[in-house]
Structures are given as C-alpha cells and as structure tokens.
Amino acid sequence: MTPPFRLSRRLFVAGAATALAAPAIAQQSGSTEFTAPLSQETRRNASSFRTRDWRPHFDTLAGGAVLCDIQSRALHFWGEDESLYKLYPTSVPQTDELTRRGRTEVIRKVEGPSWAPTPEMKARNPEWPDFIGPGPENPLGTHALYLSWQYYRIHGTQDTRKIGRRSSNGCIGLYNEHIAELFSLTTVGTQVLLI
C-alpha cells in the first residue's frame, strides 16, 4: 500500500518557484506582452489582468488606441498596425464619483509635468500645496498624457504602492517606466476610452 501523499519542504519550494516563474515564462512565449514588473506588490495587485481585443471598443486603430479598464485596473494599448499590444497595471480613481468613463483623446504630452490640485481636491485637502514642479515629489511622476477632459490625465507616479489600487483623484496612474514607454508610443490625437 502506498503511503498517503505528504507535502515535503523541498516539494513545496520547487512548486512555489515554478508558480512564481510562470508569468515570466508566459511573457517570453510572445503571445501577449505583460509589462508589469514582477515584484511582490505587483503580483498581488495584478491578479485580474486579462488580454482584450480592440474591436469591441474601437472602430479603427488609426493613431493607436488606449483602453483604461477601471474594474480590472489595467491599461491596454494597441499600435496602429496591430503589431503592438501592451498591458499595464494602473491605479484608478478612489470612488465612482471621481471616475469618468467614455471617449476622449490625448491632447498634450508632457515630460516632467508640474502639478496643481484641482479646486475640488484643494477643498477636500486644504493642507495640500498649491503647486509642485517637476521632480521626485511630483504626484504626476515623470510623464503625463493630458486628455481632452479638464483635469484628467494618464500619468506616472512616484508612489508605486498606488498601482493596482483605487487610489487616485480621477486620473489613471502608471509606474514611471510604463508611462515613459506609453508616452513614446502615443501621439497627440491617440484615442482613449475609459470603461
């Protein structure tokens, strides 16, 4: 008679290592490019990621397309010729009242953005500064894509703990290395949809 299965320490460690390596192996397979850094923080927050097709959301990919999925806290980018697809973890607005959904577009791109709180933000947080210039204390991170909706941006963040969470005042936040990449891929006029 075979003894009952016992989980040994060696078997547990080998299984855990395999599970942790799976996203990296999947990324190398080339099927879909998942660009999130595989830190412990990201793995915990990126669990609801799934790839999407652009066709249900856009009529064309002219100029590229950005889809921000508030529910899954992910940003999808498709290049104009369909050869490039990127998937990034994001921070999303803290509440539904701060969330805007619908179609917009990139109207301006700024490397080293400055930040000033909106009047509503200042009313909620009167202790906040009136202005922060570019640099390590700037809540917009290293790059910002300004949208046609006033005060709404897709931008980086210096506080990486916010990614994967409901933590913004309305904007979509990305890791600084991801917004730098997205910044290089988009143009003024790139279509954006928040769902």
Primary descriptors:
globular, eight-stranded mixed β-sheet, disordered N terminus, two-stranded parallel ribbon, alpha/beta
Determine the structural class based on helices, strands and strand pairing. alpha/beta
Rg over CA atoms, rounded to whole Å, is: 19 Å
Name the overall outline: globular
- Helix share bin: 10-25%
Low-pLDDT sequence parts:
1-7, 10-47
Task: Give the arrangement of secondary structure elements.
Elements: H1 9-28, H2 40-45, E1 65-69, E2 74-78, E3 85-89, E4 92-93, E5 102-111, H3 119-124, E6 143-147, E7 153-157, E8 166-168, E9 172-175, H4 176-185, E10 191-194
Description:
The chain is an alpha/beta fold and 195 residues long. The protein contains 4 helices and 10 strands. The strands form 2 sheets. An 8-stranded mixed beta sheet has the order 3-2-1-10-5-6-7-9, covered by helices on one side. The protein is globular.
Summarize the structure.
The protein is built from four helices and ten strands; from the N terminus they run ααβββββαββββαβ. With 195 residues, it is α/β, with parallel strands linked by helices.
